[in-house]
Amino acid sequence: MMKQIKTLLIAAILILGASNTMNAQAKVAHVDVSEIMSKMPAMLDAQNQLQKLSATYDAEYKKMIEEYQTKIKKYEQEVTTVTEAVNGERSKEVQDMQGRITAYRDNAQKELQQKDSDIVKPIMEKVKASIQKVGKAKGYQYVLDGSTLILADGPNITADVKKDLGF
Hints:
This protein is mainly alpha-helical. The chain has helices spanning 2-24, 33-39, 41-78, 84-137, 158-165; strands spanning 28-31, 142-145.
């Protein structure tokens, strides 16, 4: 009976040790998603689109601000030469302009954020699919984003993913 317990105990220790060794043998690689995204032609095109859209919004915003400042200056010069009723109307007009300018700015920011999300999401999904494809093809069970690693002694598959994506 004692001999059987010792044999079972030794077998259990060997099985636990073997399973820990198998777990330690998991193949792990890393990839730098930030590098891929920053050099990917589709992402560069997306950034150019966003910059053009942003420049369009900026130009319109500046035009609205200039118009606002011009009216303010004109109204300040004429404040003593017109009636209180006219000054009241002008004050309301200026407040309305401020509201339109603020609404335009807020809407432009929202539209830029939405456009950014709409453009970047499919690109990121393509990169993720490529990482999965390359990782599986090379037999890796885990692929970590190298941009957040502190120590990365494992293989770096960034170049392989870039090649798979065609750049």
